[in-house]
Amino acid sequence: MSSIEQKHNLHQHGPLHSVEETKSIILQSVDTLTPEKKPLIESLGQVLSKDIKSPIDIPPFPNSSVDGYAVIHSDVISASKTTPVKLKVSHRVFAGETADFQLESGHSARIMTGAPVPWNTSAIIPFELTNENMLNLSQNARENYNIEIHDSPSINDNIRPQGEDVKKNTKILTRGTILKPADIGLCASIGLDFIEVFRRPKVAILSTGNELLHPGEKFSPGKIFDSNSYSLYSSIIQAGGIPLILGIAQDSMESLEEKLQEAFPSDMLITSAGVSKGDYDIVKDFLSKNGKIKLWSVNMKPGKPLAFGSLKRNGQSPLPHIGLPGNPVSSLVAFHQFVRPAIYKMMGRKTMDIPIIKAVLENKIENTDGRRVYARVLVSNKNGEFHARLSGSQASNVLSSMSVANGLAICPENIPAKNPGEVIDVQMLDWNELEMDQSLQDSH
Fold first, then answer.
1. Cβ pair 78, 96 in contact under 8 A
2. Do 177 and 218 form a contact (C-beta atoms < 8 A)?
3. Is the pLDDT of residue 406 over 80?
4. What is the pTM of this model?
């Protein structure tokens, strides 16, 4: 499309792009960010940029899984509570010590959980299967005494073999893994203190409008508090990005340009408001003058007035820019459809889609103008079946119903209404993929 045609389309408020087309254009325009070396303790939720192999066995040596007595199996094969076997306690081994001795027949070693087992040990007898509690042993008299064994173990009972968890040189995590707390612990168990992950995107946020006040400022007639910066800031953190609030730009090119200079060190820019058809909706005009517009207006409700393009930066690649609507619900719904997947891709995530479930609809959803409707719903599990009910008013300025909702029920473009009792697709906003899988299992 030529620049003349583009300006003409913008003047006529532009063609409506489908949700899928819009998402595809945005995702094709952002790249996965470069890897960084990050302290392991700070890498939760980031994505591995390369496979990890273990340089050691885990456990690195055979060790005891209980507090008890190391024995030779043949010595205690006939032991029972009525016919106990007496053994000489000739050693003791605590966690963190070594056990460089061989257990001899007729002898045992008092051993703590996690301690290495002596050579020739074939089982560990827990304290409670001995008469230790009857001996009144002092802390300094933990060896050179006799112990009664009251049970016959199986071979290797309560012994954790070397490499039971992880074998040396095996792959423990693959590139693309989203690091969970257990993954962090696994990496720590093989001695890693730094890890290579894809960088988190820095996302600048700018609200526009003469009517906006910062929360905390004195309220005055005709003004409203800027909620979008705060909801978007939180959404970026939840998605894994690093947000930066630039503040509020007034409805002038000068104010907008001054604020946007601060966004240039970021990886992506999000603006709210200034992209519809009002006299002072100048973001799209600024974008057209100082960068490139790739699309404007999406066939969805709420969230129709959305702009995407890039801003020129001296000596750097263009800065991707998503211009979100000003209405608070429209802004958040558009964020989930387009900004969240872009952040995921920049972080190196393989899956960028929002989890979707099937739910029985409890209220009617009307589609009056042929756009895809994202209705705010509260999903609950009723007798093993998901149900979705509207969470309140569906007006795009009513943020309270978005606060109550945990999902967005989808009424497709070509469907005039979804009626109570119909099964409908619902995007679950605060579920990750693993939580969704577990919930689906629970429902069955």
1. no
2. no
3. yes
4. 0.85
Whether the CB-CB separation of 417 and 409 falls below 8 Å is answered with: no
CA atoms of 214 and 207, how far apart (whole Å)? 10
- By CB atoms closer than 10 A (0-12, 13-18, 19+), residue 242 is middle
pLDDT attached to residue 257 = 85
Count CA atoms within 13 Å of residue 341 on its CB side.
20
Over range 13-40, report the average pLDDT: 93
- Asked if pLDDT for residue 236 goes beyond 90, the answer is yes
Residue 195 structure tokens: 């890890």
CA-to-CA distance for 244 and 279, rounded, in angstroms? 28
Q: Where are the beta strands (DSSP E) in 326-429?
A: 356-361, 365-366, 372-382, 385-390, 407-411, 417-418, 423-428
3-state secondary structure 175-216: CCCECCHHHHHHHHHCCCCEEEEECCCEEEEEEECCCEECCC
Q: What are the structural domains, with CATH classification, of the chain?
A: 3-33+200-346 (3.40.980.10), 37-58+166-198 (3.90.105.10), 63-160 (2.170.190.11), 356-443 (2.40.340.10)
Say whether pLDDT at 45 is over 70: yes
Q: What is the pLDDT of residues 127-158, one digit of tens each?
A: 999 999 888 776 555 678 999 999 999 999 99
Query: Which of 68-77, 243-252, 431-440 shows the highest mean pLDDT?
Result: 68-77
Please give the DSSP secondary-structure letter assigned to residue 134: G
Distances (CA, A) of 357 to 135, 145, 247, 302, 361: 61, 64, 37, 21, 12
